Amino acid sequence: MTDRAVADSRPRYRNTQPGTVIRVSMLAIIIVFLILGLKTYSAMYLYLIPTALALALFHSLTTEVTDDSIVIWFGVGLIRRTIAIAQVKECAPVRNPWYIGWGIRLVPGGGWLWSVSGFDSVELEYVNGKRFRIGTDEPQELTAAIMQAVAGQKDTDPA
User: Fold this and answer.
1) Neighbour count for residue 42 (Cβ, 10 Å)
2) Long-range CB pairs of 100-108, under 8 A, 24+ apart, other chains included
3) Are the C-beta atoms of 136 and 151 separated by less than 8 Å?
4) Tens of each residue's pLDDT in the chain, 159 residues
5) Which of 102-133 are b and which e, b meaning 16 or more Cβ less than 10 Å from the residue's Cβ?
6) What is the pLDDT of residue 11?
7) Residue 23, SS3?
8) What is the pLDDT of residue 156?
9) Domain 3-19+59-156 carries which CATH code?
10) Which residues are bridge partners to 65 per DSSP?
11) 81 Cβ contact list (under 8 Å, min separation 6)
12) What was the pLDDT predicted at 146?
């Protein structure tokens, strides 16, 4: 592995945002299912599986920025997305309206949002004009890391 490849693989930024409301609500649902299942209806345990799976999949959102890519993943990492820095034209911190919510969803006006908590996010504008929002509790830091990576790509671009 070359020195450049090693440098590219090290993150210049990494943050895991906890989904506190999601964690508390899912755990409360699991507790209710356990209590009801123990006392009344044994098939209630069947509801535990999808609830526990949802908790594992969406309990947090991790964002990692390297020189070449932005990688974001929910929870244990089964749901993830990698965005090449070369695709990013601009990025800026934005505030999502309350009605957009959390999770993976289309944003009114175009683009996707991946968010687990709060209303802050960073909106990426791709070179093809499409948009993508990454929910974060550190919008300024994430924006700075992405813009540094974008500037680094332009510096090393042979064109």
Assistant:
1) 8
2) 102/19, 102/21, 102/22, 102/135, 103/58, 104/79, 107/131, 107/133
3) no
4) 444 444 456 789 999 999 999 999 999 988 888 877 766 766 777 778 888 899 999 999 999 999 999 999 999 999 999 999 999 999 999 999 998 889 999 998 889 999 999 999 999 999 999 999 999 999 999 999 999 999 987 766 555
5) beeeebeeeeebbbbbbebbbbbbbeeeebbb
6) 85
7) helix
8) 63
9) 2.30.29.30
10) 13, 70
11) 71, 72, 73, 114
12) 97
Phi-psi region of 27 (alpha: psi -120 to 50; beta: other; left: phi over 0): alpha
What is the rounded distance in angstroms from the CA atom of residue 159 to the CA atom of residue 36?
65
Q: Sheet holding 112-115: strands in order across?
A: 88-95, 120-126, 131-135, 112-115, 103-106
Amino acid identity, residue 60? S
Residue with tokens 């649902």: 29
> Can you give the pTM of this predicted structure?
0.84
**Domain locations in the chain as residue ranges:** 3-19+59-156
